[in-house]
Amino acid sequence: MSHDYSLDSYSFELPEDLIAQTPSERRDASRLLVVDRGLGVSGEGRFTDLPSLLPEGALLVANNSKVLPARLLTKKPSGGAVEFLLLTPLPLIEPRTGSCPAYPSAGQDGEKPEASGGWREADVLGLLRSSKKAKPGEVVTFADDLALEVAWRGDFGHSRVRLHWRGDLQAIFERIGHIPLPPYIRRPDSPGDRARYQTLHAREDRQGSVAAPTAGLHFTQELRRELTAKNFGWAEVSLHVGYGTFSPVRAADIREHRMHAEHLEIPEETAQAVAQAKGEGRPVFAVGTTACRALEGAFALTGDIRPFTGWTDIFIRPGHPFAVVDGMLTNFHLPGSSLVIMVSALAGKNVLLEAYAHAVRRRFRFFSYGDAMLIR
After folding, report:
1. E runs forming strands in the chain
2. Distance from C-alpha of 75 to C-alpha of 357, rounded to nearest angstrom
3. Which of 86, 123, 205, 370 has the highest count of CB atoms within 10 angstroms of its CB?
4. Which residues contact 164 (CB under 8 A, 6 or more apart)?
5. 73 and 178 in contact (C-beta within 8 Å)?
């Protein structure tokens, strides 16, 4: 087996104190490591240095999906704790008129919303954890306007449930939900995470992610204005980041790993901007692995740069022929993760691992709230 396909070869030593638990004081105050594809580390700076480090005329493509406070917490009447993390992207939920088994007098299936007390329902996927394993048919109430009914339980908490709610589902999650911080941030979410674990370009109508597209967290409005003034382009895609982004690669031969699927949308204006940049020889830089996955995933499915809406389960690994992305802004990722493997495919595996070793020596901050890397 080629060394590039061995999962063990993507591991590295990472001191735990380098895993950022909180964001930097300012978004653009994070450090920036500069890596040239196939060559190696070429410099260090601050994220505010970005306009002077990008190739002339580069087009930046960012993910505008917004993180939903998708983690719900409650207790059963017995006192046992229950946690539910919604995995179906909110914009893809298809509500229908329904009833709520927690409030059986509120209405029956098939009645009009006003006749059923306004109850709506939809079948969704999520992670369900409880002190005592919930069984199919069990009902869990989170608020007087939101409950779920367990339909199916799988491994590692994966479940199919029927949500029952009244009113605006997005508003309910905003009211009672918690920001789903990554598992390596070992603290409860705080009010500050509502703002900081969210990019400033996230769109309200694209609120479907359960993890932030973290490379975008470093951008401020001031930096965006400076990039525009210096004739750098900006375009956006929507890829709803799933919890599978944190799933470990378990196959010793990474070619046997099967990626989770994520929903993406490339609008007409973005497809045109990317096609124009490629036609004019200007480089396309993905702001993060999710934007890269959207662009390369859509191209792999269509063979062209065009508007696209659908799902991708692309696994970008060494040997991948990058058809759209020329460079990337990204944070530092977990050892042995699919994201480290993806970034290795772009930068070159040895270059990437040497850059990570450099970052550890220089005490860069890792993961979602950490520092950034520019691969050009």
Report:
1. 31-36, 40-46, 59-63, 66-67, 71-75, 81-86, 96-97, 119-130, 139-143, 146-153, 158-166, 207-209, 233-239, 262-266, 284-287, 308-312, 327-331, 372-375
2. 44
3. 86
4. 98, 99, 100, 101, 102, 119, 120, 121, 146, 147, 148, 149
5. yes
- Written as six digits, the tokens of 62 are 């960012």
> How many domains does the chain fold into?
2
Each residue's pLDDT expressed in tens, for the chain with a length of 376 residues: 577 899 999 999 999 999 999 999 999 999 999 999 999 999 999 999 999 999 999 999 999 999 999 999 999 888 889 999 999 999 999 999 988 988 865 444 444 444 457 899 999 999 999 988 888 999 999 999 999 999 998 887 899 999 999 999 999 999 999 999 999 999 999 999 999 999 999 999 999 999 999 999 999 999 999 999 999 999 999 999 998 888 889 999 999 999 999 999 999 999 999 999 999 999 999 999 999 999 999 999 999 999 999 999 999 999 999 999 999 999 999 999 999 999 999 999 999 999 999 999 999 999 999 999 999 9
Return the amino acid letter for 33: L
Q: Check the CA dihedral 300-351-275-234 and report its sign.
A: positive
Kindly state whether residues 53 and 76 are assigned to the same domain: no
Q: Domain check: are 57 and 118 in the same one?
A: no
Provide the token pair at 257: 């790993």
Domain-embedded: residue 110? yes
Task: Tell which residue, 372, 370, 357, has the closest CA to residue 20.
Answer: 370
Residues 196, 158 share a domain: no
